[in-house]
TrEMBL record, chain A:
Molecular function per GO: iron ion binding; oxidoreductase activity
Organism name: Acetomicrobium hydrogeniformans
A Pfam family of this chain: MoCoBD_1
Superkingdom of the source species: Bacteria
Protein name, UniProt field: Xanthine dehydrogenase family protein
InterPro entries: Ald_Oxase/Xan_DH_a/b (IPR000674), Ald_Oxase/Xan_DH_a/b_sf (IPR036856), Ald_Oxase/xanthine_DH-like (IPR016208), AldOxase/xan_DH_MoCoBD1 (IPR008274), AldOxase/xan_DH_MoCoBD2 (IPR046867), AldOxase/xan_DH_Mopterin-bd_sf (IPR037165)
Domain Aldehyde oxidase/xanthine dehydrogenase a/b hammerhead as annotated: residue spans: 19-124
Lineage: Bacteria, Thermotogati, Synergistota, Synergistia, Synergistales
UniProtKB/TrEMBL annotation, chain B:
Keyword list, A-Z: FAD, Flavoprotein, Oxidoreductase
PROSITE patterns: FAD_PCMH (PS51387)
Pfam family, one: FAD_binding_5
Domain of life: Bacteria
Protein name as annotated: Xanthine dehydrogenase family protein subunit M
GO function term, MF aspect, one: oxidoreductase activity
Record-annotated FAD-binding PCMH-type domain positions: 1-177
SUPFAM superfamilies: CO dehydrogenase flavoprotein C-terminal domain-like, FAD-binding/transporter-associated domain-like
Entry-linked Gene3D superfamilies: 3.30.465.10, CO dehydrogenase flavoprotein, C-terminal domain, Uridine Diphospho-n-acetylenolpyruvylglucosamine Reductase, domain 2
Length: 762, 291
């Protein structure tokens, strides 16, 4: 049916990357380039009494030393502008920058930092969002420490609980985790290049968000600031605000010195400064009938927002929409909150407010099943959303296939769930015990009612028939370039090798918002299709006239163009050439806006997303009862993606997502102690290695969506959100003990509770 | 940032000359401990002026079976231990321990001498080498001395090495008839894994009776030492009369009596008991199979 999409096309950037030719932010060199470095705070909460930079300035080779005084506009942020480019009077967290230098070498820059004298007055900090709730505002200009409160209301929970046969209440908790992109943040700012005030190259997830921040900081027109993305060594949601802050600083130093300036974080700087996944404290109350139908759910989730608002308002919004899990629940009351603290700030990370609530609601389902004496499989089948179901937010699901039963059954079958569940439910002897656990989810695709959801692509056919694409969404390592080239190739009926995807560049690409929310293939892919369609129309009209055809309904395939009745007309390349010399417009912009949706913040209901994806992951584990070691043996992952544009890259997303979920579930944790971060490199911040990788069984389920390009929806985030919950359920079966806080590391598994190192301030 | 000058020693003699005539020299072998400390500006890595690269000294890179011992050159890598037929034949626990170290790259670079001289409480070679009663040889320009490994170690990250000495080899006495060995390790993941706890057990069994037991946990005490009381509890006992679980608990008690209660004790108390139990059960099973 297809010639290019739905096929395992080779990644367009694979060759460049494996041969080492690909240039990343830190690889860039410019004549006369200086190096920038940032002096960071000594305390997580303090007042800056004085900063003396004179000694640093006097060091030979130092070109500039700047502090907050020198920043035209010091507050940036995508949603709420409260993030300091450099700390002005107050230090809000341990990663705050205090001063920065530009020098001829990194060594000189480091020496200069040591020569800066800062006098602090420590202020008692707040490190627990529950304490923060009732404390005086940390930021003096705010009325309270609440960043946001979202609610969702359906039916009447009091009545629901009154009519329930079984009610259980549980509390769950999750931790700070680090994105762990392999490439730390890196940018180069070049002043006055090609008509721009400043150009920033680098490891940027969202070129437009970074451009907006730099322009705001410099008080410059958006059109004067150019941000160009390079190859990016991972992001996972992590190279947004933190890179924007870095870009602002680099731009300031570059303009001050009139020299290109490179800034690259060390791993320690990266872990100290960059935002993390939100830790959540969650209270769940659920009521069900004795035959296992859910009647009511009441949920409160509190997110630690850390020092700055960052993405907290939207992260907690996704949580409020999805907190019940993918179930029909007639009565729901959910509240999610974000509070400021003096911890490291928290923001977007693959999953974006879903892994936390999924850990809770999927643990809860198993606990409820146990209470009711039915299996985890049964309780889910009884309550999952189906075609025509109404979600907790009141949205009727009738525009796409609600495939929860399908993903659940396919994953269960692939891993042999029912048999293993029965086997492992019997009493086990010995030190090594096994368990199998599942988790399912529904996930709203793209931004939802968070923001305007439009994206654009420029597609330009050259006079030799080759094509280039400029997209407003950016490759983040997920394979966007390849997917977009496949979509363009399919639509134009040419081979992918003739299509070049150019890097995202804010002065050429249409502003398409951010590459987030697993929206690119869906929203951006549609814009590629629109651009290709429009180019095709222009060519067809021209050819119909040229060849005197009655219809311009031409068929484009295999590098040729055919008449509607199948006669070979002209090659694509020749057509392009003729069209060019005839003055036909060959550059086209495709623009796509997502179907309309709405959310009533006051009432706490609405149709928050125009479509959803569904997934199920099942983990089989072995637990060492004597040491607390957990081995994840097998993991089945079934995901309905609408249509797999590239099945192999899709599997790559599944493998990677499962591994990140595994790390989140059993080992990863940024250890904070009164705002200080203890583990700032990968010797102590433990992430899974290839040896920890289970046998992963990826299952691609395709129910094409009416609104997706060729039916495609999303895959990036769904793959990560389920793993921790599935593993936790498997561990509970193996050990007979339920652990309600992440990660399920050695101590928690063996003792049932964590141990605090309490190593104090660094 | 730590500033230093870098020298590469072309021969052992020149290395010793350099050490003998300069103050503030640090030797670097594989660098897998030292470079990490230098980057972290760890207090342990401060206060030196010269880095002396000894990694090219081929004469310290060997594994050799002698009359009553196996000599391991200080620059032998972990990979060499893993692959050595001699080691696998005589001291399989040493190969097992080496196999768990870091990753392929770390095992290719990291050396036996580095692991010993860094003297980390969690070093994976220390428990097996102590349990094997290894001796270390230290050379200066003027001479050589040999001392038992457990006397060479002086504390966490501390040894009795003099500043002008280089460790040249480790001598591991051959075990006689009837000895069994076992190595255990717990980590937070399956590779690149600093031991949360490790354990070496070496003991002899004759006529179903334990003799010469040596039990050395790592990452349990300030630095690895033999657990004498636990050893006593099984020495001279028939294996049928030994309850491995009970001995495990004894080892945990011995750990706590040495270290006191620490933040990690609730975990390590149970986990060490499990490791000791497991090691003894494995050895007893092997002994039975040997009959
Ligand atoms: C990622 C990673 C994972 C690791 N995993 C493990 C693990 O699982 N288990 C484990 O035990 N260790 C582990 N290590 C630590 C390290 O690899 C080992 O301890 C290794 O054996 C050190 O050897 P080296 O040659 O690299 O030592 P170096 O770093 O070169 O030296 C270490 C110290 O020993 C001194 N020294 C070295 N050779 C001599 C000599 N011949 N005479 C006198 N002094 C000498 C040096 O001066 C220095 O003080 C790991 C390290 C890393 C970076």
């Amino acid at each position: 049916m297809f010639s290019t999409v739905n096929k395992p096309a080779e990644r367009v950037d694979a060759y460049e990357k494996v041969t080492g030719r690909a240039k990343y932010g830190a690889d860039l060199q410019f004549a006369g380039m200086l190096y920038g470095k940032v002096l960071r705070a000594k305390h997580p909460s303090a007042r800056i009494k004085s900063i003396n930079v004179e000694k640093a300035r006097a060091i030979p080779g130092v070109w500039a030393v700047m502090t907050a005084q020198d920043v035209p506009c010091n507050e940036i942020g995508v949603i709420i502008q409260d993030q300091q480019v450099l700390a002005k009077e107050r230090i809000y967290y341990i990663g705050d920058g205090v001063a920065m230098v530009a020098a001829e070498s990194l060594e000189i820059a480091s020496k200069a930092l040591e020569a800066i004298e800062v006098e602090y007055e420590e202020i008692e900090g707040i490190f627990d969002p529950l304490l923060s709730k009732n404390s005086d505002p940390i930021q003096p200009e705010r009325a309270s420490n609440e960043v946001v409160h979202h609610k969702l209301r359906k039916g009447n929970v009091e009545e629901g609980f009154a009519g329930s046969d079984v009610i259980i209440e549980r509390e769950y908790e999750t931790q700070f985790v680090e994105h762990s992109y392999i490439e730390p943040e890196a940018v180069v700012a070049v002043p006055h290049e090609n008509g721009s005030l400043v150009t920033v190259y680098g490891s940027v997830q969202n070129v437009f968000a970074t451009r907006d921040a730099v322009a705001r900081c410099l008080k410059a027109d958006l059109s004067k600031v150019r941000v160009v993305q390079n190859h990016i060594g991972g992001s996972f949601g992590g190279k947004d605000e933190v890179v924007s802050a870095m870009a602002c600083r680099a731009a300031l130093l570059a303009l001050k010195t009139s020299r290109p300036l490179k800034m690259v974080n060390t791993r320690e700087e990266s872990i100290l400064e960059s935002y993390k996944r939100h830790p959540y404290k969650m209270k769940y109350k659920v009521g069900a009938t004795k035959d296992g139908k859910l009647v009511a759910m009441e949920i409160e989730a509190i997110a630690d927002g850390g020092a700055y608002a960052c993405q907290t308002p939207f992260v907690t919004w996704r949580s409020v929409v999805q907190a019940t899990g993918p179930y029909e629940v007639p009565n729901v009351k959910t509240d999610t909150y974000g509070y400021y603290t003096n911890n490291v700030y928290t923001g977007a990370m693959r999953g974006y407010g879903s892994p936390q609530v999924i850990f809770a609601n999927e643990s809860l389902m198993d606990e409820l099943a146990q209470e009711l004496g039915i299996t985890p499989f049964e309780i889910r089948l009884k309550n999952i959303l189906k075609n025509g179901s109404v979600t907790a937010s009141g949205q009727k699901l009738d525009r796409h296939e609600v495939s929860l039963a399908e993903v659940l059954k396919k994953a269960a079958e692939a891993i042999g769930y029912e048999e293993k569940y029965r086997e492992y439910s019997k009493p086990q002897r010995g030190d090594k015990r096994r368990g199998i656990g599942m988790a399912i989810s529904f996930r709203g695709c793209s931004l939802g009612a968070e923001a305007v959801d439009g994206a654009g692509t420029v597609l330009s056919i050259q006079k030799d028939g080759s094509v280039y694409l400029y997209s407003g969404l950016a490759e983040n390592g997920q394979g966007l370039k390849t997917a977009f080239c496949q979509i363009a190739a399919e639509e134009l009926g040419i081979e992918m090798k003739h299509i070049t995807f150019l890097e995202a560049n804010t002065l050429i690409s249409p502003d398409s918002g951010s590459t987030v929310a697993s929206r690119s293939t869906l929203v951006g892919g549609n814009s590629v299709m629109r651009a290709a369609e429009s180019a095709k129309r222009a060519l067809s009209r021209f050819l119909a006239k040229e060849f005197g055809l009655p219809s311009s309904d031409l068929v484009f395939k295999e590098n040729w163009i055919y008449t509607p009745d199948g006669k070979k007309l002209i090659s694509f390349a020749e057509a392009a050439n003729k069209a060019f010399w005839a003055g036909v417009q060959l550059s086209h912009v495709g623009w796509y806006v997502a179907p309309s949706i709405h959310w009533d913040e006051e009432e706490g209901r609405g149709n928050p997303y125009f479509t959803y994806v569904y997934g199920c992951q099942i983990a089989e584990v072995e637990v060492d009862m004597g040491t607390g070691e957990v081995t994840v043996l097998n993991m089945a992952a079934a995901h309905d993606v609408g249509r797999a544009i590239n099945p192999e890259m899709l599997k790559g997303q599944i493998y990677g997502g499962v591994m990140m979920g595994l790390g989140y579930g059993i080992m990863e944790e940024v250890e904070t102690d009164e705002g200080y971060i203890a583990n700032t490199n990968f010797d102590e911040y433990i992430i899974p290695t290839s040896k920890d990788m289970p046998n992963i069984i990826p299952i691609i389920v395709e129910n094409p969506d009416p609104d997706g390009p060729f039916g495609a929806k999303s895959i990036g985030e769904p793959t990560l959100e389920l793993g921790a919950a599935a593993i936790a359920n498997a561990i509970a079966q193996a050990t007979g003990r339920r652990i309600r806080s992440l990660p399920l590391n050695l101590e928690r598994v063996l003792l049932g509770h964590p141990l605090r190192k309490g190593r104090g301030k660094k | 940032m730590i500033d230093y000058e870098f020298f590469k020693a072309p021969s052992l003699k020149e290395a010793l000359e350099f050490l003998g005539s300069h103050e503030g020299v640090k030797a670097i072998a594989g660098g897998t401990d030292l470079l990490v400390d230098i980057r972290k500006e760890n207090a342990r890595a401060k206060g030196f002026k010269y880095l002396l690269d000894i990694s090219g000294l081929k004469e310290l890179k060997f594994i050799e079976e002698r009359k009553d011992c196996v000599a391991i050159g200080a620059l032998s890598t972990h990979t060499m231990l893993v692959e050595s037929l001699v080691i696998n034949k005589h001291f399989p626990l040493l190969a097992s321990a080496a196999k768990t170290i870091g990753s392929t790259q770390i095992r290719n670079r990291g050396t036996v001498g580095g692991n010993i001289n860094n003297a980390s409480p969690a070093a994976d070679l220390l428990p097996p080498l102590i349990a094997l009663k290894a001796h270390v040889k230290l050379r200066t320009l003027n001479g050589e001395r040999k001392l038992p490994l457990d006397e060479f170690l002086a504390g966490p990250y501390r040894t009795n090495r003099q500043s002008d000495e280089i460790m040249t080899e480790v001598c591991v006495p051959l075990l006689g008839e009837g000895y069994f060995t076992n190595f255990q390790k717990i980590g937070r993941r399956k590779a690149m894994n600093i031991a949360r706890l490790n354990l070496a057990v070496v003991l002899g069994i004759k006529d179903d009776t334990v003799f010469d037991p040596r039990i050395v946990p790592g990452a349990a005490t300030a630095y690895p030492i033999r657990f004498g009381k636990t050893e006593e509890a099984i020495s001279g006992k028939r294996i049928g009369d030994i309850d491995p679980a009970e001995i495990g608990e004894r080892a945990s008690e011995e750990m706590i009596s040495t270290t006191g209660i620490r933040w990690s004790t609730p975990y390590k108390r149970i986990a060490l008991a499990s490791l000791v139990k497991r090691a003894l059960e494995t050895i007893f099973r092997e002994a039975k199979a040997d009959e």
